[in-house]
Design a protein that fits this description.
putative 2-phosphosulfolactate phosphatase; 6-stranded mixed sheet; binds D-malate; alpha/beta; 5-stranded parallel sheet; 235 residues; 10 helices
Length: 235
């Protein structure tokens, strides 16, 4: 049996042992949903960049997608909503990508044996990737500036539940058990449940809440973006 661990925020990352695990970076609103959409629309590579300074060095070489506190950075080509990652813009392209929480989370997950980007859009494919990977699963939520958030925790619960139902995984991690409890509360009306999340209100204030139902759509794609040599690529 392999084990599932859920880490609710990047701040808690050093408290867990995860080096040999297959990790999933989770930022449902909106980074990992946007990344899955970019690959669905033919993007070739997504370079997760943690700092704005480093991102500037990609300008002129790659398509730049970036936000801080939800707002597009002025030198970026596009902001951070799945709807900006259109086929016309991203097909065949390398995207240098930096967001408030999500891209730093991906770079932490990359320290594990393997790392992937997970969202509701690729839930089943992601679980197959974890099952075929034949290692412990480490589910790393982006949260918000070091704090817990609901939407990432609910998704971690969906993954943990699917993996335990599949019979190859078990868990003794209280965060995984709590995440599964949240998933069971949320699963019958996901958009309704997520309405209470703080990020729902943040996105509403910047007129970006239109993406929330899309980001909670299950299994739109079989693509699993995986981390290799400094970038996410299509698995
Ligand atoms: C993040 O990385 O914190 C998010 O993707 C923020 C956002 O929704 O723009």
């Amino acid at each position: 049996m392999h084990r599932i661990t859920v880490c609710f925020t990047p701040v808690q990352f050093p408290s867990y042992s995860h080096d040999d695990a297959n990790a999933v970076a989770i930022d449902i609103l909106r980074a990992t949903s946007s990344i899955c959409t970019a690959f669905m629309n033919g993007a070739e590579r997504v370079i997760p960049v943690s700092t704005v300074e480093e991102l500037k060095s990609h300008a002129g070489r790659h398509l730049i997608a970036a936000e801080r506190d939800g707002i597009k950075l002025d030198f970026a080509d596009i902001g951070n909503s799945p709807k900006y990652f259109t086929r016309a813009l991203v097909a065949g392209k390398t995207i240098a990508y930096s967001t408030t929480n999500g891209t730093h989370t991906i770079n932490l997950a990359a320290q594990c044996r393997n790392a992937a980007a997970g969202s509701f859009l690729n839930l089943s494919a992601l679980c197959r990737w974890l099952e075929e990977g034949n290692r412990d699963a480490f589910l790393l939520c982006a949260g918000w500036k070091g704090r817990f958030n609901l939407e990432d925790a609910v998704f971690a619960g969906a993954v943990a539940q699917k993996l335990t139902d599949g019979g190859q995984f078990t868990t003794e991690c209280d965060s995984a058990l709590a995440a599964m409890d949240l998933w069971s509360l949320a699963k019958n009306d996901l958009p309704g449940y997520i309405r209470k999340a703080a990020q729902n209100e943040r996105l509403r204030k910047i007129n970006a809440a239109d993406t929330i139902p899309y980001c909670h759509t299950i299994d739109l794609t079989d693509i699993v973006p995986v981390y290799r040599d400094g970038a996410l690529i299509r698995n």
